[in-house]
Amino acid sequence: MVQLIKVIELYIGIESARLNSSVFFGGELNQAIADGVKPTMVKGVAAFNRLTRFSPYLMGSEITMADFFAYYTFSNARIIAKKTWGGDLVADIPGLREWVQLMVERPTIVQVNKENKEAMAGLSAG
After folding, report:
1. C-alpha distance from residue 62 to each of 11, 40, 42, 110, 117 (Å)
2. Which tens digit of pLDDT belongs to each residue from 4-45?
């Protein structure tokens, strides 16, 4: 599980976060950074594919911290990939779409997403 979390963190989360300013805050896209981020994320997706089973959770029949960490990391990385390169990160990972659907139905995820949406609405209103 630790190896999977590290792959998600280093190759997907940290790399995609390098593009946060242009995607989420209206900053100018630094094409050189975007060009460097994409191949690292592609390697991360390949490693993620090797380490996961989707039975139905990432590491088998029991949900783990890796599932929650991946859910929120991929939530942002997916937006970043779509806005930066026009691709769908979820489509590049067999089984991920079904896993995302499974995760969004979990009560904890529903509650956190609701609170996040309310907080973001408050930020944009203020």
Report:
1. 24, 29, 27, 19, 28
2. 999 999 999 999 999 999 999 999 999 999 999 999 999 999
